[in-house]
């Protein structure tokens, strides 16, 4: 079981803190001969597998590196167009590393803002007055848990679907936020959280939650 990441969103929908705690390694590197037996397509400014699966390479995986050179979007770090390079028989055999796309800082900001809007929509769609909004989203690979404070700050945790004790963890994160961010004289409300003690105590809380599940008294 694992906790993947933590997001803190202010009442205006802005991302003020994000931590990637654990990312499953799904990278696969293989050497290919021409022609490439995978169909690649550009998608959202990156090159992804559109058809064909083999040896751990799945549809949706992005090209991360070619011959050891990192790929940034649709180009290698030395400026070569990925699709043009792979369509040239002279460049084979070639080593390609595929894997799950890593979200950029801008993408994380955008997704946090989108969830803020979905949370508000969920609250308004409720047949009951005073609904709390979306508290959990579940997929086959992770669950997104959300806790909103009375002041509108949202704490979001993405975790393995089997991970227990997330409700207690969210309350613990709120406690850490109150102790090490709000009580920090150099911290301004609604602004990005840059407090070393907040980082340290949050990481410790995530480790405790992964190993022991719910927090006990005095934790």
From TrEMBL:
Keywords (A to Z) from UniProt: Cell membrane, Endoplasmic reticulum, ER-Golgi transport, Golgi apparatus, Membrane, Postsynaptic cell membrane, Synapse, Transport
Assembly behavior: Component of the multisubunit TRAPP (transport protein particle) complex, which includes at least TRAPPC2, TRAPPC2L, TRAPPC3, TRAPPC3L, TRAPPC4, TRAPPC5, TRAPPC8, TRAPPC9, TRAPPC10, TRAPPC11 and TRAPPC12. Interacts with SDC2. Part of the multisubunit transport protein particle (TRAPP) complex.
Summarizing the function annotation, the protein's role is: Core component of the TRAPP complexes which has a function of guanine nucleotide exchange factor activity for Rab1 GTPase. Plays a role in vesicular transport from endoplasmic reticulum to Golgi and autophagy. May play a role in dendrite postsynaptic membrane trafficking.
In terms of PANTHER family, this protein maps to: TRAFFICKING PROTEIN PARTICLE COMPLEX SUBUNIT, TRAFFICKING PROTEIN PARTICLE COMPLEX SUBUNIT 4
**Name listed for the protein in its UniProt record:** Trafficking protein particle complex subunit
Q: Which CDD domains match?
A: TRAPPC4_synbindin (cd14856)
InterPro entries found in the cross-reference section = Longin-like_dom_sf, TRAPPC
- List the subcellular locations: Endoplasmic reticulum; Golgi apparatus, cis-Golgi network; Golgi apparatus membrane; Postsynaptic cell membrane
Which processes are annotated in GO (biological process)?
endoplasmic reticulum to Golgi vesicle-mediated transport
Similarity comment text for this entry: Belongs to the TRAPP small subunits family. TRAPPC4 subfamily.
Q: Name one Pfam family in it.
A: Sybindin
Gene3D superfamilies named among the record's database cross-references: 3.30.450.70
GO CC terms of this entry: endoplasmic reticulum; Golgi membrane; postsynaptic membrane; TRAPP complex; vesicle
Q: What's the source species for this entry?
A: Picathartes gymnocephalus
- Predominant place of localization: endoplasmic reticulum
